[in-house]
Amino acid sequence: MWWWKKCREFWDVMDRRGLCKSLYSYSIYMDIQCESGKLWRAVKLYKEMKKKGIRLDVVAYNTVIHAIGLSEGVEFSIRVSREMKEVGFEPNVGTYNKKGCAPNVMTYHCFLGCLEKPRQILRMFDRMMNGGFRPRMDTYVMLMKKFGRWGFLRPVFIIWKKMEEQGCSPDACAYSALINALVQKGLVDEARMYEEQMLAKGLSSKPRVDLGSKPHTE
Q: How far apart are CA 162 and CA 42, in angstroms?
């Protein structure tokens, strides 16, 4: 603990002598605050940097995301990660798995919702699965909707297949996401096939007019 106190003394000396604190200085001191459990101080330093107009780099953002996520919650860390992307930095592995910040299903769900590159999303999804975290149904649906909206059909089926491999029975939202993606690509016959499956399972009682499916009867 003594060296953390020593670092604080050096930091105070810089203030007293009017020495200019660089991004490098702030990054080191923020990391020290995190290691010592004083997450609120790390967040305070981040706000101080922004007030001074200091432009953060990837390392600094990763430290802030870790600190603010643990001290104020995942939603706040997501806000900072969005800010990070807005200023031109792509999140890296350290952003999502900062030392001492153990991810959970909700953490992965939130970050997957923020990512905007298909390959990056699939890598993160694989990381989630390989880490032993089982996605929730709303995570599967969110990803299929996202890929479908972008017009990427192959990733939609990758997620669908993963869902089936995990023994998750698709609900009406999952079917709708897949069907919408197929319709967008003009694959009406295939979309109709999945809608008929959904109707047969009783997940919906009203077939889509544009597909011409018939209501399921016993």
A: 39
- The pLDDT value recorded for residue 97 is 57
Q: What residue has token string 């609120």?
A: 40
Proportion of the chain above pLDDT 70, given as a percent: 84
pTM: 0.59
Contacts of 26 (CB under 8 A, 6+ apart): 45, 48, 49, 54, 60
Which two tokens mark 175? 């079917």
List Cα–Cα distances, 82 to 113, 146, 165, in angstroms: 11, 17, 32
CA distance 184 to 149: 8
pLDDT tens by residue, 49-67:
999 999 888 888 888 887 8
